[in-house]
Amino acid sequence: MALNGKVEAILELDCPPGKFLKAFKSEAHQIPKLTPNNIHSVELREGDWGSDKGSSIKFWEYSVGGKRETFKERVEVDEANKIIKFTCLEGDVLQEYKYILAHYDVYLDAETGQLSFNGQS
Fold first, then answer.
1. CB neighbours (10 Å) of residue 80?
2. I need a surface site. Which of 59, 66, 100, 115 has the fewest CB within 10 A?
């Protein structure tokens, strides 16, 4: 049975907004080093790490409740407007959801920022 709905939240960032955008645009392959028990790997399947074209396809391997799962996503980064858009293309999570679309707006401040998250499934 597939679930559907919408989630919205505003979160404070503990890092400069530019660093947050850079992490998802060009440094996602470093995320497993931060949380190796949960996220095992991030591979680039299409596009370039840090490409100014702003679009790439990434493949994630991670664990949930001790079970290893996968997730393939399209990531689109609009640096001018500080927006990141994630679209789930395939993976274990689609056994629970028909589709997943996440949209992050990063609001700038001198040192910190806010993250507005909108997710739909």
1. 7
2. 66
| Residues 83/99/26/51 CA torsion (nearest 10 deg) | -80
Rounded to two decimals, the pTM is 0.76
* Per-residue confidence in pLDDT tens, the chain, 121 aa: 455 677 777 777 777 777 777 787 788 888 899 889 999 999 999 887 766 566 889 999 999 999 999 999 998 887 777 778 888 899 998 888 787 877 777 765 555 566 666 666 6
**Does residue 59 sit in helix, strand or coil?**
strand
Domains and their CATH numbers in the chain: 6-120 (3.30.530.20)
**Alpha carbons 36 and 3: distance in angstroms, whole number:** 29
